[in-house]
Amino acid sequence: MIINEESRKHLIEELLGSKARLKILKTLALNEELNISLIISKTKLNHASVLKHLNFLKSFNLIQEKKFGRIRIYRYKSENIKARSLKNFIEIWESDV
């Protein structure tokens, strides 16, 4: 099966193919809403990398960016079934079960 570039960008392999992106995804899933400074602090990643991955996650419709003047808040979109499923997976994986 041949996959064109447009459909390739939304494959799960693309989403989960980066350790940094997974750190950001997990941090937002478990905290719901954070500004970029807190995401950087919690993930120990640099600003440019975090911003790049946040934009990537927005393209998957997993997070939402809210702007309040110069302040940007990133919110995990739990109303999205794929985002909710990923959050459930993260919570189960991180639990002591």
Topology summary:
Blueprint: H1 5-8, H2 12-16, H3 19-31, E1 33-35, H4 36-43, H5 47-59, E2 63-68, E3 71-76, H6 81-94
Antiparallel strand pairs: 1-3, 2-3
Helix pairs in contact: 3-5
How many domains?
1
How is the CATH topology named?
A: Arc Repressor Mutant, subunit A
Helix proportion: 55-70%
- CATH top level label: Mainly Alpha
Which keywords apply here?
97 residues; alpha+beta; Arc Repressor Mutant, subunit A; 3-stranded antiparallel beta sheet; 6 helices
Describe the structure.
The chain has six helices and three strands; from the N terminus they run αααβααββα. The chain has a three-stranded antiparallel beta sheet. The protein has one domain (9-94): Arc Repressor Mutant, subunit A (Orthogonal Bundle), CATH 1.10.10. The chain has helices at residues 5-8, 12-16, 19-31, 36-43, 47-59, 81-94; strands at 33-35, 63-68, 71-76. Helix 3 (19-31) crosses helix 5. The protein has 97 residues and is α+β, with helices and mostly antiparallel strands. The mean pLDDT is 90. Strand 2 and strand 3 form a beta hairpin.
